[in-house]
Amino acid sequence: MQLLKDMIVEYGVVLPGNILKVDAFLNHQINPDLFMKMGEDFKEYFYDKGITKVLTLEVSGISMALTTAYHLGVPMVFAKKDVSKILDEEVFQAPVYSYTKGTEYQIKVSKSYLSEDDRVLIIDDFLANGQALAGLIGLCEQAGSHVAGVGIAIEKAFQDGGKRHRAAGVDIYSQARIKAFEDGQVVFED
Amino acid sequence: MQLLKDMIVEYGVVLPGNILKVDAFLNHQINPDLFMKMGEDFKEYFYDKGITKVLTLEVSGISMALTTAYHLGVPMVFAKKDVSKILDEEVFQAPVYSYTKGTEYQIKVSKSYLSEDDRVLIIDDFLANGQALAGLIGLCEQAGSHVAGVGIAIEKAFQDGGKRHRAAGVDIYSQARIKAFEDGQVVFED
User: Fold this and answer.
1) Burial level of A84, CB count in 10 A (0-12/13-18/19+)?
2) Residues of chain A positioned with their CB less than 8 A from the CB of B113
3) From the CB of residue A166, how many other CB atoms can be counted at a distance below 10 Å?
4) Contact: B75, A23; criterion CB under 8 Å
5) Strands, DSSP E only, in chain A?
6) Residue contact B32–A76, C-beta within 8 A
7) A78 vs B59: CB contact, 8 Å cut-off?
8) Closest CA of chain A from B32, distance in Å
9) CB–CB of A75 and B112 under 8 A?
10) Best residue in A23, A56, A66, A120 to probe B by mutation, most B CBs within 10 Å?
11) On the CB side of B162, how many CA atoms lie within 13 Å of its CA?
12) What is the rounded CA–CA span in Å between residue B121 and residue B49?
């Protein structure tokens, strides 16, 4: 998606350790027009997949999941992060390991909002090592929901999450795929 | 706002302790059409206030702040919750006491995204004792931003947050004002 790539080039900041800071427009300050267009773009890719629900993970995925759900005309659900491993009968729950923080957390979604009748589109802001995505797919598997697709804003294609999940048969569409960071600049895949 | 009141009556659940559970459409599963209309409704109320930025607090405020910012044509910023009290030169920071959890946390927003040139519309999902709102107003004061208004989805008007902030001169518009819970039913103010 050219608009998102342009915003990354103009407002993104590349920090040491292959970290891309997009606070200015994507995950702290939000550009609503961009997000509406991102939602429209996800809809254009997934419109014929029979999506019944959009699933994301708090916090950064919420805004783009909302606009995508709006364009698709379906509800959006966001999984919640929790440190507690205590099992709760009312939720589906999956562990996610965070490489950036070096800790494991739990993601949870109420059993009321995912079912075996659902065809789910998973939306998230970043895909790198694919740990959060594995957790979200795990929630869908527990619910018996079909993962109809995955929409990602920014994929770090030099990490193996996208490759691994695609090899497992998941239909992943990323709006901006980053091949490398070179001299503080972002290099996109074609 | 009649649509929101209707949704509360149809899908809200009143729990002991004056807790209103709106997980089904407002803060876990999200109805995107409702949220777009809520954003439009906030815009209709605040359109002539010269708003330059919408400010909210993660997590539940994000979706309605986004749609409001979209309709107003301005950026949205969400403050982040953090347990750490360590001062960071790069953020504005304010303490918020949570009555439901019995603990204090910090809310933080980057100094890059609030300034003395901003006329801020604060958006949040609930207003009860007004602690979170006080924190958000505090962030604006630190930035030298003008609080041009406050938009709330659901106000528990039997608690004193709204009264106290209105007495201090804040222009608060709540889409659904709850007077009381009676026999598990919601009673709205006129």
Assistant:
1) exposed
2) 23-24, 28-29
3) 13
4) no
5) 13-15, 19-21, 29-30, 53-57, 76-82, 91-98, 103-110, 119-127, 146-156, 172-182, 185-188
6) yes
7) yes
8) 5
9) no
10) A66
11) 21
12) 9
The tokens for A136 are: 């979200």
Task: Identify the three-state secondary structure at position A136.
Answer: helix
Q: Sort out which chain A residues have CB atoms less than 8 A from B70's CB and list them.
A: 32-33, 35-36
Chain A to chain B Cβ contacts (< 8 Å): 95
If chain A, 190 residues long, is cut into consecutive pieces of 10 residues, what is the mean pLDDT of each piece? 98 92 96 98 98 97 98 98 86 92 94 98 97 98 98 97 98 98 93
Report ipTM (2 d.p.): 0.96
Helix (H) or strand (E) holding B146: strand B146-156
Q: Which residue has the tokens 């507690």?
A: A84
Chain B contact set for A112 (CB, 8 A): 23-24, 29
pTM to 2 decimal places: 0.97
Name the one residue in this structure whose structure tokens are 């039913």. Answer: B185
B24 in contact with chain A, both atoms CB, cutoff 8 A: yes
In sequence order, which ranges of chain B are alpha helices (DSSP H)? 2-11, 32-46, 62-72, 131-143, 161-167
Q: Determine the residue type at B89.
A: E
